[in-house]
Amino acid sequence: MILKRISLHNFRNISSKNFDISPHLTIILGENAQGKTNILESIHCIINGIGFRESKEEELLLIESSETQLDGLFEKDNNQHHFRVHLKKEKNG
After folding, report:
1. DSSP 8-state assignment for residue 75
2. Closest CA to 43 of 73, 14, 16
3. What is the strand order of the sheet 2-11 is part of?
4. What is the pLDDT of residues 27-37, one digit of tens each?
5. pLDDT band for position 56 (cuts 50, 70, 90)
6. Please, are residues 69 and 12 in contact by the beta-carbon 8 Å criterion?
7. Dihedral angle computed from the Cα positions of residues 20, 21, 23 and 28, in that order, rounded to the nearest 10 degrees
8. Which residues contact residue 85 at a Cβ distance below 8 angstroms, ignoring those fewer than 6 apart?
9. Where are the domains of the chain?
């Protein structure tokens, strides 16, 4: 499967962003603490259902947000496959 596109909503420090992924080469550039690793973690989360750095799912959400949604568009044999991860913060009390 080839990753074609990811869409992030309220994921870590990214409020809402879409990324088109080239099948040949994709370069992620940016200053420190601007979200480069968060993009990689979002791909990991879409594939595996959990992040690779955080022990609690709530830590993947944008601060002050109650939920996050990650969408991945993959292609295999000219067929498109959509994967979605939706995490929602539990209410205390």
Report:
1. E
2. 73
3. 14-20, 2-11, 67-76, 79-88
4. 999 999 898 99
5. low
6. no
7. 140
8. 45, 46, 49, 68, 69, 70
9. 2-88
Domain range 2-88, CATH class? alpha beta
Residue in 54, 91, 46, 92 with CA at minimum distance from that of residue 73: 46
Both tokens assigned to 5: 């596109």
* Cα 86 from Cα 42, distance rounded (Å): 12
- Report which of 69, 73, 85, 81 is spatially closest to residue 23, judged by C-alpha positions: 73
Answering whether pTM is above 0.85, one says no
Write out the two tokens for 85. 């991860």
Do the Cβ atoms of 12 and 4 come closer than 8 Å?
no
Residue found by looking up tokens 């709530």 in the block: 58
